[in-house]
Amino acid sequence: MPPLARLLVAVGLVLVVVGLCLWLVPGATSLGRLPGDFRIERPNLRIYVPLTSSILVSVVLSALFWVVSRLR
Question: What is the DSSP letter of 34?
Answer without folding.
Answer: S
